[in-house]
Every structure is written in C-alpha cells, then in structure tokens.
Amino acid sequence: MLIVDCHGHYTTAPAPHQDFRNAQLAHFEDPSLPAPLPAVISDDEIRESIENNQLRLQKERGADVTLFSPRASAMAHHLGDGEVSKTWSRACNDLIKRVVDLYPENFIGACQLPQSPGVPVSESIDELERCVNELGFVGCNLNPDPSGGHWTSPPLTDRAWYPFFEKMVELDVPAMIHVSGTCNRNFHATGAHYINADTTAFMQFVQGDLFRDLPSLRFVIPHGGGAVPYHWGRYRGLADMLKQPPLSEHVMNNVFFDTCVYHQPGIDLLFEVISIDNILFGSEMVGAVRGIDPLTGHYFDDTKRYVDSLELSEEDRIKVYSGNIRRVYPRLDTILKTQGR
Amino acid sequence: MLIVDCHGHYTTAPAPHQDFRNAQLAHFEDPSLPAPLPAVISDDEIRESIENNQLRLQKERGADVTLFSPRASAMAHHLGDGEVSKTWSRACNDLIKRVVDLYPENFIGACQLPQSPGVPVSESIDELERCVNELGFVGCNLNPDPSGGHWTSPPLTDRAWYPFFEKMVELDVPAMIHVSGTCNRNFHATGAHYINADTTAFMQFVQGDLFRDLPSLRFVIPHGGGAVPYHWGRYRGLADMLKQPPLSEHVMNNVFFDTCVYHQPGIDLLFEVISIDNILFGSEMVGAVRGIDPLTGHYFDDTKRYVDSLELSEEDRIKVYSGNIRRVYPRLDTILKTQGR
Q1: Are B231 and B274 within 8 A, CB to CB?
Q2: What gap in Å lies between CA B231 and CA B252, rounded to an integer?
C-alpha cells in the first residue's frame, strides 16, 4: 500500500540557508550592510540533511512519499516586508525543488507564500504560479495571520482573500492552513499559535459562506484540526445556532484534517468523529515534537503507529494513507501516476 | 450524591441590566449623555430569569449547586476604561449576590474582575476582596486577554500578574481562566476565542515556572481545557523539549479542566488522558451552545449525560461531581458544610 505523508517540512535545511536569512534581515534593518544572495548549497549538503533525517525516518516508519514544504516556523512573514518575504520564499521554495529533484520518488513539493502584514495576498499569486507551473509543486501553505500572533488580517472568509483563492481553484491546488512563528509572547509557536490558528480558521469557515462562493476550494487544517474534533459537538451546535447547514455539507466537502496528533487517544477521537474521507495521513516530521514518549518508547510524532493501531478496513486504510490526499491534491496524483504508482 | 456544576453564567439577567451597560458605554463615548446608575431590578424579575432557566435546567438535569458568575461574553473588558470596567463589574457581581441570596442552596458566587487593557491587574484586587470578604464569593474569572482578541497583555506567567495571584493565594480562591467577547473579527467568541485562550493559557503554564513561585495558586481551564487533552501527547512532548518536569508535576497540581465538552467522544477522551483528580464537572449552562443535538435528541450542553455514561467507580464519580471542586474551591466547601452538605 502506498503511504503518503501530507505534512513534512524541511526543518533540517543546511545552515547556510539560515545564514542567508539572517543576513537578509540584517540588511533590511540596516541597508548599509551588504544585500546577501541566497546561499550556495551543494547537492551533497542537501543529501546529508535529508538522508539523515526525513528520508531515514520515512524508511524507518514505513512511509513512501512526503508532501514537502519549507520550515513553517521560519516563514516568519512578520519579519521584513513584502520584498524580503518574496526573496526569502523563492529561496525556500527553490531549495524544496532541489530536494524533490534529488529524491523524486520520496518528496513532492508544496510552497511557502511571500505573505507580509498589510500586503494584499494577491501579491502571492506570482510565486504560487511559479511553484506550480515551473517547479511542479502541488499545493501551498497559507498563513491566516502573517502578523505573527497579532491577527491583523481579515478572516479567511473575507473577499480580500478571494483573488488568491480563485487562483488556487484555477490551478486546482489546495492550501494547508499554516501559521509561522510568533512575535506575540502570549503564544508559544507550536504549542499555542499553531493549534489556535487551526481552530480559528475552522470556525471562520463555519461562520462564513466561502465554499458556497468557491465550491471547489480545498484546505487542509493540520495538527488534527486544532481543537475541532475534540469539540466536534460544540462546532455542530454552533453551526446550528448560526443557522448554517450541517458541517458535513457546509464545510466538510472542502476541509480536511491531517493526523498530526501525538498520542493514541487523540487519533482514536479523530477517527471516531471525523469522516474517513476527511482525514489525511500526516506526521509533521521532523517537526514540532522531536522526543520519545516515555509512555510508549516511541517517537511522539511517529503518527503512523497510532493510525496502524486503529481497526480500519482495507478500503479506509487506503483512503487515509493515499486515496484522500490523491483526491485533495490532484497534481500529486498526476505525479504519482506518471511514476506508475 | 451531591452534584456541583463549576461553570455557570448569568446569561439570562433581566434586560434592564444590559440597558444600564448600554447607557454606561454611551456615556463613556459621549460624556454629555447622562451617567446612568445600575438598574433597579426586583426580586421577582431575578426569580423569573433564574427559575425558567438555570434553576429549571439544574433540576431537569440533576445538578444541585452551580458556581455562578456573570455572563462571560458581556464582561467585555475591552470596552470603556478601567473606571467603566469597575462600575460594570460591581453591578454584575452585585446581581450574582442577589441570585445567591435568593437561592443559597442552588448557587454560590464567583466574580467578574474589573480588568481593562493597559490597566494593571492589581487594580482588580479591591473587587476580588469585596466579593470574597463581603459577598461570600469563592472564586473569580480571570481574563488573560482584556484587549478582546488582540492579546496585548503579558503572558500569565509574567510578574505583572503576581500581585493579583498573591492575593488569590492569600484569600485561598482559584480563578477560572475565561476570556470575554472579542473585537477582533478573526475570532468567533465561543467558537474560537474561548478555546484558543484555554489552550494558550495552558501552554504559558508549560513554558513558565509560575507554580514553582506560587505552589498553592490554582486555575480552572474551562471548555475541557481547550485543545489540550486532544493534543496531550504534544504537550507532554513539548514539556520534555522545553526541559520542564513532567506535566503531572509541573502543571497538574495547579490546573484543572471542566467537562464543558459537548459530545460523548470528547468527554471520553478527557477522562482517558487527564487524571480524575483534575476534572471538575461543569456545563457552562445556559451557555455557548443552546440547541439540541440531532444525533442524540438531547441538549449539547447537558454534559452530565456524557459523564454519567462513563464507567467510573463511585469514588471517581464523587470526585468529579463534588470532591474535586470542594478541594479546589475551599470556600465553596465551607459554605456547603455550613449547609450540612
């Protein structure tokens, strides 16, 4: 059975890549400093960073392909400005492309967007088109809060986002809703901001009518949908109070959750309350939580173990491990078919 | 068996109370308008508002006592200023006191605090002391984000909060972490802001060392602990990555979750992953979700039904329904004992 992980980040990029970022931000703060160029990184450096990490874990844990995007916490759309974000995003996406070219059977690309607080998201369309049409990427990560924890953008259901969404529909690529690091010290990035953003986005979709306007727009909400499955009764009840259709019609034709929930009881709940057609296997590795669970002796983020422990029919197992993601990301399906998979 | 609901709000206060609030805010915006006085509300008006709602539901659902506080979404600390918040909080708390005096066997008071963005939380100490020492209240609702969705205050682990926390310790009263309505349109109040605040506060406690400094400080995180139990593996793993002690030692001697989770699978998860000593029965009624679940034919917020469906020992059932809350709120225990319960 083909196993596709819908949520992997290049958290282990070679150090010169971050050095470039640091120099870029230093130049932004002090334009008298030299304007740096993206790091020159050899294929061997990339191989080492991947083979010892994501590729090793892919093999150890038994996944075949990872939908791979730049490190989310390093997108940091709140730093610099729109131009800085464009340059940084291009460098990050180009590096993903090189990983995909080195390991085309193991990684398929999803892009970072050059969002920036106060800059219209339509400014991100060019990079989306470049990544999809020129680099062969199949999706993108969309940040609902480029301010990094101040939430100064309009909600995702606001028409300000529509030009970008219309381009997603035209290209037939979904977005993973994914915030980045935060400059608001109330929010720990991976422990609060990520989960809050997932929950917030879902509730925006419940309140709004985005999918009535754009019925083929698709989002993946990572980290198991934030708080949503645990509070599924609350969300069903709120949809009812807001006089919206049932969630299954109103939201769940367009929204999908990954399995980045780092313990068995959470995965059990996810599969109990969410339709099997809306769940995509994901691990967020090498990611937010890197340690070994003392209760199980296994890595927290080895989410395949939790999914394998479920009593699923063969049909449902195929859906979670590859069928759903092939349906949600048609361009990924095309790549896999080209490879005879 | 005595059944105590730790989470009830006076969401059904007579209309003149809200009229006063509206006039108060109008006067704040335009000081040429008359400065209103708190509404004159008769005992009969209070009886009607309670007997048709909270008291009726208490009896129908089989609870005995509710820890009762002002309507959370109406605290609206982000409106007006510190003085407006003080006057409004006094009026809200005085109304709770009247409910308690009319139904001393059914309601015990917890207070709203006169927080205001930019105003030190130490300014809330006087009202806490008044409510505890003069009105006989046993706890308070603490808003970690008085800005109403902009999160401009320091995290709860910052020393700016310590004077208030030290007073809580001195009075031996816990706080429920509870935000109010929001002026940030990204966040639906009960669907996103409430749940996000619960998650955020918990992660702040994981990151910080608040309970090392104040080992007898106690918080209730409502709405089943936000996203935390669903992502319990994530939080255990993050504590480990942050080189903090295990959550059971680092946070869970001081933090308690209520049962405001509006479906059976969520309650099942809560009791599976969280120690029975940290769970307090609560319903948030009459609250965030008022409808009937079409899947069960029962009210979403009739959380007692979910708890009753669990296979708990008699000892554990007593803990959840009264033992834990008597331990966490010693002044509530004293009142119940005075009543021979």
Answers
A1: no
A2: 15
Which three-class secondary structure state does DSSP give residue A110? strand
CA-to-CA dists, residue A283 to A104, A169, A324, B112, B227, angstroms: 19, 26, 15, 42, 18
Tell me the per-residue pLDDT of A244-267, one tens digit each, with 9 for 90 and over: 999 999 999 999 999 999 999 999
Q: What is the DSSP letter of B214?
A: S
At B319, the amino acid letter reads K
Partner residues linked to B109 by β-bridges: B68
CA distance B134 to A81: 55
Vertex B103: Cα angle to B100 and B108 (nearest 5): 40
Query: Is the distance from CB of A8 to CB of A61 less than 8 angstroms?
Result: no
pLDDT in tens, chain B (341 residues): 999 999 999 999 999 999 999 999 999 999 999 999 999 999 999 999 999 999 999 999 999 999 999 999 999 999 999 999 999 999 999 999 999 999 999 999 999 999 999 999 999 999 999 999 999 999 999 999 999 999 999 999 999 999 999 999 999 999 999 999 999 999 999 999 999 999 999 999 999 999 999 999 999 999 999 999 999 999 999 999 999 999 999 999 999 999 999 999 999 999 999 999 999 999 998 878 989 999 999 999 999 999 999 999 999 999 999 999 999 999 999 999 999 99
Structure tokens at A273: 């309350």
Is residue A94 within 8 A of residue A72, CB to CB? The reply is no
- Rounded Cα gap, residues B13 and B49, in angstroms: 6
Residue B155 gets which letter from DSSP? Answer: P
Could you give the C-alpha distances from B308 to A212, B287, B291, B314, B341, in angstroms and in order? Answer: 40, 20, 20, 11, 21
Q: Is the peptide bond before A220 cis (omega within 30 degrees of 0)?
A: no
pLDDT tens for residues A261-304? Answer: 999 999 999 999 999 999 999 999 887 898 999 999 999 999 99
Tell if the CB–CB gap between B151 and A186 is shorter than 8 Å: yes
Contact A80, A116 (CB under 8 A): yes
CA-closest candidate to residue B242, choices B206, B284, B195, B275: B206
Structure tokens at A131: 């990544």
φ and ψ at B52, to 5 degrees? -85, -5
Pairing of strands B298-299, B292-293: antiparallel
Question: Residues 130-159, chain A: which have Cβ within 8 Å of B?
Answer: 144-145, 149-151, 153-155
Instruction: Give the C-alpha separation, B336 to B313, whole Å.
Output: 23
Token representation of residue B180: 């109010």
Residues of B with Cβ-Cβ distance to A291 under 8 angstroms: 237, 240-241
What are the backbone angles phi and psi of residue B32, rounded to the nearest 5°?
-75, -15
CB A241 within 8 A of CB B289: yes
- List, by residue number, the catalytic residues of A: 284
Region for residue B223 given its phi and psi (left: phi exceeds 0; alpha: psi -120 to 50; beta: otherwise)? left
Find the catalytic residue in B105, B129, B249, B284: B284
> Cβ of A233 and B262 within 8 Å?
yes
Gap between the Cα atoms of A286 and B331, Å rounded: 48
Whether omega for the bond prior to residue A286 falls within 30 degrees of 0, making it cis, is yes
Q: Residue B195 burial by CB count (10 A; 0-12/13-18/19+): exposed, middle or buried?
A: buried
Distance (Å) of CA A248 to CA A229, A235, A252, A255, B287: 13, 11, 5, 10, 24
Q: Do the Cβ atoms of A260 and A300 come closer than 8 Å?
A: no
- Joined together, the tokens standing for residue A301 give 């983020």
Residue in A151, A200, A300 nearest the CB of B237: A300
Q: How far apart are CA A42 and CA B73, in angstroms?
A: 56
Q: Terminal CA-to-CA distance of chain A, rounded, Å?
A: 10
